[in-house]
């Protein structure tokens, strides 16, 4: 009888250390938290995930709980953690200071409004007032009940729908408005009650055999970079490195031992699996992982590809070619012993993390099951005697904010389908390895040094701001080493501050690549942890630590920072486009300069569509200040195919306008109708069907399905936008360039 297709889901639960050092001896006794996300994600994302799974006993999964997350949960459960959001929530309405009111108006809508605000009429009402009338208007006109309701709803909206049948929660949801301080105090008590169930529920399900709980190095550091920042050059040989080389491999066993001991204390057994922070691995870190006693680790398919010198291509349906290389565990061989490793399917993981939230729940679940069934068929066709293991590993908290009802309908549809499909079997990683030990081997020294992000470390090092932070960390580490009398036993403050500063999250937010409206707070927290090292050693704090690592002013032009799923309604919702790429047009230097009616261009992708948005000068209208036709022309670099020139009159004979293109989408801005064409022989253009969406209101928004372009995943495209009037060239953008796009 052939093997079923084995599937290992691994959910990674992690939050950075939001705790500011200085008010307590160790992480678990400090009071002041800078941000509320441990508390809010704790009531929305950690408990419900495993409670839903428990209803489908045939399905086994793995959940990774980072020690620094658990420590912070325990602070909130104990009632010793206070963040500014919580402090405001528990302040009597009449005692709110002017600064607190400003803070509330600015930050108590920090949530995806489609899923967490809009479903609640009173919360949506307040949000619309802020969006349409502005923060200053709210500050001048809101009454105390408005603040009281906003304080309550910010906390209520983050409680998972799975708990809405709780009588108290149901009563608050029905009440809707006129919340009192007493209501908010009871909501806080309910939050702590939900938080207190998280670890016991994981322990219970692990003891029952349905769950495997794994761990991560103590404060989520990038272990290969602790061993040697020069490892950044393995994937990027010309990377600009920090001025000083960070080489403190001795910190690696400390992080591993603390995670190991912490896990034993909370779960009553030793851990088997380790999720290396950001799935970052290198040959140098393997001995410490093996010596600590871990049996397996996980990483990304990009790391396996670099290791095997094999790039994983996908077919038009998005399924991996040569799947037998990815869907198996490997045994890493070292002088200290062997260690098993599994590599996740990057695309399947990303579909859950970034794209299925934009699809109807049942359709999204069916799509994922369809991919797994296709892989199962490939396994049967291969007649392999070795069972296959598909690893789907991803962030287990942040994606659900974008799903209706926090992903509950999607997960229920997915879990029911998987329970009903006999050829698909969900297992924990350890279950699989115990029954089918890895037979394929990789010499430890051959393992690529990289992470889940493109198989490199560029997200955490190489940028000027990231490198500056590494230099600050190096100086602080050298200072601690110069105090051999400061041991973990007699100076825990210094060591806890070091471990916190070595965490990966600060470097993630510094520099190019990722940004949020809380970058300045992450910058401050990183420096506070370094400050804590010097303070604990009675050493003067370097003056540079009192200044931000970088300037946190709003960015101008930048490339996409993540997947987006905008609603195509022509309104340019700020949250929908916050991770999109951006090109300034109106204020740019050059021929278009300030006279351009188009002010900026936004673009981004998910696994379903390419998205484009154009912002116009106020009052601009097609046929008056704005040409009536917008043409999107796609260029496919280094691909052999039939191409044709731009089919307009008076097109300048200059690059990139004189390139030949393969696809053309013409948008009539007066009627919002579209014509889609594909290049043919003899420089002709032939009509094709398109499912593109277009909307023009305060801005122009477009969604073009990848299916229209018929391109497979991992495919490079280039795009130019050409404006025309009655078939005659008018202008183009971006100036002297093509927009680079990667199909996910």
Architecture overview:
The chain starts with a strand and ends with a strand. Helix content is 36%, strand content 17%. The protein is an alpha/beta fold. About 2% of the residues have low confidence. The strands form four sheets. Strands 14, 15, 16, 17, 20, 21 and 22 form a seven-stranded antiparallel sheet that branches. Strands 1, 2, 3, 8 and 9 form a five-stranded parallel sheet that branches. A five-stranded mixed sheet has the order 4-5-7-6-10. It contains 26 helices and 22 strands.
Task: Give a quick set of tags describing it.
744 residues, alpha/beta, 5-stranded parallel β-sheet, 17% strand
Radius of gyration over alpha carbons?
A: 27 Å
Which stretches are low in confidence, meaning pLDDT under 50 for 5 or more residues running?
A: 23-30, 587-594
Query: Largest sheet, described in full?
Result: 7 strands, antiparallel
Global geometry: globular
First CA to last CA: what distance? 36 Å
Oligomer: single chain
Q: How many strand segments? A: 22
Q: Could you say which structural class the secondary elements and strand pairing correspond to? A: alpha/beta
Mean pLDDT comes to: 94
Amount of beta strand: 15-25%
DSSP summary: helix tally: 26
Instruction: Estimate percent helicity.
Output: 25-40%
Q: What's this model, at a glance?
A:
The protein has about 750 residues and is of the alpha/beta class.
What is the topological layout?
Layout: E1 5-13, H1 37-54, E2 61-65, H2 67-78, H3 84-89, H4 98-107, H5 113-117, H6 121-133, H7 135-141, H8 144-156, H9 167-175, H10 181-195, H11 198-208, E3 211-214, H12 223-227, H13 232-235, H14 251-267, E4 273-274, H15 286-292, E5 296-300, H16 301-308, H17 323-326, E6 330-334, E7 337-344, H18 346-355, H19 361-382, E8 389-395, H20 408-420, E9 424-426, H21 429-435, E10 440-443, H22 464-481, H23 492-501, H24 505-509, H25 519-536, E11 581-584, E12 598-605, E13 609-616, E14 629-635, E15 663-668, E16 673-680, E17 684-688, E18 693-696, E19 699-705, H26 706-709, E20 716-725, E21 728-733, E22 739-742
Helix pairs in contact: 1-10, 1-11, 6-7, 8-10, 19-20, 22-23, 23-25
């Amino acid at each position: 009888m052939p093997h079923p297709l084995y599937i290992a889901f691994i959910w990674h639960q992690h939050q950075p250390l939001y705790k500011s050092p200085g008010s307590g001896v160790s992480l678990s006794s400090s009071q002041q938290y800078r941000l509320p996300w441990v508390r809010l994600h704790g009531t929305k994302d950690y408990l419900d995930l495993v409670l839903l799974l428990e209803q489908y006993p045939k399905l086994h999964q793995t959940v990774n709980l980072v020690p620094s997350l658990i420590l912070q949960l325990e602070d909130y459960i104990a009632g010793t953690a206070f963040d500014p959001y919580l402090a405001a929530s528990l302040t009597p309405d009449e005692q709110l200071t002017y600064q607190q009111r400003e803070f509330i108006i600015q930050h108590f809508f920090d949530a995806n409004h489609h899923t967490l605000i809009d479903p609640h009429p009173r919360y949506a009402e307040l949000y619309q007032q802020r969006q349409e009338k502005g923060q200053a208007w709210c500050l001048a006109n809101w009454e105390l009940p408005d603040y009281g309701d906003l304080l309550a709803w910010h906390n209520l909206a983050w409680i998972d729908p799975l708990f809405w049948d709780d009588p108290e929660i149901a009563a608050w949801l029905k009440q809707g408005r006129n919340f009192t301080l007493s209501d908010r105090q009871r909501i806080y008590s309910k939050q702590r009650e939900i938080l207190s169930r998280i670890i016991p529920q994981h322990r219970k399900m692990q003891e029952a055999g349905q769950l495997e709980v794994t761990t991560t190095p103590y404060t989520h550091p990038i272990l290969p970079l602790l061993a040697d920042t020069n490892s950044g050059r393995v994937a990027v040989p010309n990377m600009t490195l920090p001025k000083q080389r960070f080489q403190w491999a001795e910190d690696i066993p400390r992080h591993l031992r603390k995670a190991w001991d912490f896990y034993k204390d909370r779960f009553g057994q030793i851990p088997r699996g380790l999720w290396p922070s950001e799935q970052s691995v290198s040959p140098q870190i393997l001995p410490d992982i093996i010596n600590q006693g871990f049996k397996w680790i996980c990483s990304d398919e990009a790391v396996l590809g670099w290791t095997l010198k094999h790039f994983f291509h996908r077919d038009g349906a998005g399924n991996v070619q040569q799947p037998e290389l990815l869907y198996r565990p490997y045994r890493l061989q070292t002088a200290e012993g062997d260690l098993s490793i599994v590599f996740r399917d990057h695309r399947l993981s990303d579909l859950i993390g970034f794209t299925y939230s934009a699809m109807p729940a049942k359709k999204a679940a069916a799509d994922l099951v369809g991919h797994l069934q296709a892989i199962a068929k490939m396994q049967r066709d291969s007649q392999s005697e070795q069972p296959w293991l598909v690893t789907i590993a991803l962030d287990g908290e942040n994606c659900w904010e974008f799903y209706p009802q926090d992903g509950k309908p999607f997960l229920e549809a997915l879990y029911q389908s998987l329970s009903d499909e006999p050829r698909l079997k969900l297992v924990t990683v350890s279950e699989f390895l115990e029954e089918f030990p890895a037979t394929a081997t990789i010499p430890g020294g051959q393992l690529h040094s990289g992470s889940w992000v493109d198989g490199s470390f560029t997200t955490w090092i190489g940028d000027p701001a990231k490198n500056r932070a590494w230099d600050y960390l190096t100086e602080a580490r050298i200072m601690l080493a110069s105090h051999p009398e400061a041991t973990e036993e007699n100076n825990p403050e210094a060591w806890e501050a070091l471990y916190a500063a070595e965490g990966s999250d600060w470097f993630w937010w510094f520099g190019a690549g990722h940004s949020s409206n809380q970058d300045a707070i992450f910058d401050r927290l990183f420096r506070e942890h370094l400050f804590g090292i010097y303070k604990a050693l009675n050493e003067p704090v370097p003056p540079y630590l009192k200044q931000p690592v970088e300037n946190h002013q709003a960015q101008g032009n930048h490339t996409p920072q993540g997947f987006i799923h905008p609603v195509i309604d022509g309104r340019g919702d700020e949250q929908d486009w916050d991770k999109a790429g951006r090109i300034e047009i109106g204020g740019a230097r050059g021929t278009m300069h300030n006279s351009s009616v188009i002010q900026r261009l936004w673009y981004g992708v998910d696994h379903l569509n390419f998205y484009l948005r154009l912002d116009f000068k106020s009052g601009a209208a097609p046929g008056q200040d704005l040409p009536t036709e917008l043409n999107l022309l796609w260029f496919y670099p280094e691909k052999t195919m039939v191409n044709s020139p731009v089919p307009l009159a008076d097109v300048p004979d200059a690059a990139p306008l004189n390139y030949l293109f393969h696809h053309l989408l013409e948008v009539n801005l007066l009627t919002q109708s579209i014509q889609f064409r594909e290049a043919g022989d003899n420089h002709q253009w032939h009509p094709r069907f398109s499912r593109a969406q277009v909307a023009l209101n305060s801005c122009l928004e477009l969604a073009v399905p990848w299916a229209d372009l018929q391109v497979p995943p991992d495919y490079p495209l280039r795009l130019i936008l050409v404006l025309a009037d009655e078939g005659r060239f008018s202008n183009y953008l971006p100036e002297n360039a093509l927009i680079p796009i990667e199909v996910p």
